[in-house]
Amino acid sequence: MSERILTPIQALATTGARALATWQLDDVRYLAVAQLARDIPGEPPHMNGGDSDIEAPLFRMEGERFVQFDAFQLSGGEDVEYFEIGARRFLTTAGIRQGRGPYDLNTQATLYEWRNGAWEPHQHFAAFAAKQWRAFAIGERQFLALAQGVTLDGVDATHPRSSRIFEWNGERFELFQTIDGLWGYDWNDFQHGDMHLLAYSDHVSGSAVMRWNGEQFVTLQRFEEKGGRTFRFFEADGECWMVHVNLLAHTTLYRFDGERFVETQQLGGPGGRELCLIESERGRYLVRVCFITGTPQAPVVERESQIFEWTGNTFALVETFDTSAATAAISFTEGGTRYLAVANSLSAEQRFGVASTLYRFDA
């Protein structure tokens, strides 16, 4: 493919960006950014340093650009997730920590509801090193899963430390199931035929794909290596496929053989953090954004991410693009044009004040 797929449209003023969420209200496109920290003047750089008592900026789209118009408090922001239940609209947030150092990893995750033209707090959750939420439904049942936890010397959990799944009771989310895992990162759900899958990523305890048995989620397959970050599922020609990102090792494509997921192709080595699957008129594309290699004490900021195109049974690399410790990517269509927003979290010098980017996606 000779023409570039991505065209930069806008640099978004962000600091330590970790996650993105976008939605429409009254024909207006909005974007929220979870931010981990801002730099503290005079302090040496460190990817786990900085001031985490920070806010999540809210943008609205005007033409082909986002304009910040508001923000809400989100200390140590790791995630923001938008979802709907019937006519009700919700925004839920997760923060890994609070403070300027030393940090407290026992936090409150907040669920907001859109009421009277504003986002109002609806429910609070006691969280510990919270990473990511995932809202999903099975039939009429509505679930909200929180990935959380760390295992660090000197860090004590006074809040529940295991990753958890909550179920909607009509007014609030109640604890439904607790998952064994010490350092949760992400959830991804997928429906294939009559099989509902839920994947859980964990940094130290091994990751897993679970299956709904009508009463709870039970393990279908485990991935025991450390470094799990995320999964993505899709269907092609009636078959179920899965991509698994491991920050420490590799990004791998799997095919479901009816009983388990079988490794088919490796799409890159260490450093992968997140994925974005895009279905366009021209085909299926996979965006792999890359974060760091090395260690938190001596990180190497990854400066390049990739776009792959589906060929029918494998992915082919079609484009690379500049990023800076990228942590998330989301795609959306507005006014007949497809866009890709990418969150960048660190500069090469390990400073948080690095812009995120909005692209036009021409494929």
From TrEMBL:
Q: Which SUPFAM superfamilies match?
A: YVTN repeat-like/Quinoprotein amine dehydrogenase (SSF50969)
Q: Residues of the signal sequence? A: none
Q: Which UniProt keywords apply?
A: Repeat, Signal
Q: Which Pfam families match?
A: EPTP (PF03736)
* GO biological process terms on file: signal transduction
- Check the record and name the PANTHER family matching this protein: THROMBOSPONDIN-TYPE LAMININ G DOMAIN AND EAR REPEAT-CONTAINING, THROMBOSPONDIN-TYPE LAMININ G DOMAIN AND EAR REPEAT-CONTAINING PROTEIN
What is the protein name for this chain? EPTP domain-containing protein
